[in-house]
C-alpha cells in the first residue's frame, strides 16, 4: 500500500509540482490549501507525513503545526515545513513546535523527495542494539522506542529519539552539527545546523531534569556526558 503524504500549500503551482514528484516516487498525495482543511484531513486520514507551507490563509503553518503536535491522534505524524528565505524565525518556531525538517523555497523537487524519504525512514526505523539503558533517572528503551524520566514516559518524535540514541551511543565523544545531520537526518547538508540546535533545545525541554546529559560544546557541537 502506498504511503500517503498530505501537502498543504495555497499556491496551486507548488502543489502540482510537489504532487507530481511525490507520486512519481511512489506516494499517494492529498492536498489542502488552508490550515483548517489541513487539520481536518490530517485527523481523518492520518498521513505518513505532512508537507506544510508556513504562509497560509487563515491559520498559518506554525499554528497548524502546534495543533497537530498537541493532538494525540496526529502528534507522531512527521512534518516537513516549506518556508521562504526570509522566514528564519518562523522556521525556528516550527522546529521548536515539533516539525522534523524544513525546505526553503524555491526548492529542488528532487531534494524535497529525498527529505521526505529520509524522514519516513527515521519514523519506520528500529534502532539497534535492542536493550534498555539507564542513565541516572533517565531510561531509554532502544528496542521499544521509548524514553522515561523518573519512570514517567516522555513523548519524543522519531527524530528526537534517534538524536538522543545517537548521542548516547557515542557517549563522551563530541558530535558536530554536520555529523548529527548526516547520521540522524540522513543527508550531508552544510548550513542546516539550526535544525540540530532546534531539535536539541526541544529534546532538552522534554527531558526536563535529565536534560543535563546533553552538553553543549561551544563552537563545536553536542555530547552525551554521563
Helix share bin: 40-55%
Briefly note the structural class of the backbone: alpha/beta
Helices and strands, in order, run as EHEHEHEHEHEEEEHEHHEE
For the record, the count of structural domains works out to 2
Give the N-terminus to C-terminus distance in angstroms: 43 Å
Shape: globular
Biggest β-sheet description: 5 strands, parallel
Radius of gyration: 17 Å
CATH level-3 fold name of the largest domain: Rossmann fold
Per CATH, the architecture of the largest domain is 3-Layer(aba) Sandwich
Query: What is the mean pLDDT?
Result: 87
Number of strands: 12
* Count of alpha/pi helices: 8
How much of the polypeptide forms β-strand, as a percent range? 15-25%
Annotated CATH homologous superfamily of the largest domain: Response regulator
The CATH class of the largest domain is identified as: Alpha Beta
Low-confidence sequence ranges: 126-130
Across the major sheet, the strand order is 2-1-3-4-5
Structure characteristics:
4-stranded antiparallel beta sheet; alpha/beta; Arc Repressor Mutant, subunit A; 226 residues; 5-stranded parallel beta sheet; Rossmann fold; 8 helices; 2 domains
Structure explained in plain terms:
The chain has two domains: 4-124, 3-Layer(aba) Sandwich (Rossmann fold); 132-224, Arc Repressor Mutant, subunit A, CATH 1.10.10. The radius of gyration is 17 Å and the shape is globular. The protein is an alpha/beta fold and 226 residues long. Mean pLDDT is 87; it is low at 126-130. Helices cover 42% and strands 23% of the residues. It has a five-stranded parallel β-sheet, sandwiched between helices. Strands 6-7-8-9 form a four-stranded antiparallel β-sheet, with no helix packed on it. The termini are far apart. Helix 3 (61-70) packs parallel to helix 4 (88-97). It is built from eight helices and twelve strands. Strand 4, helix 4 and strand 5 form a beta-alpha-beta unit.
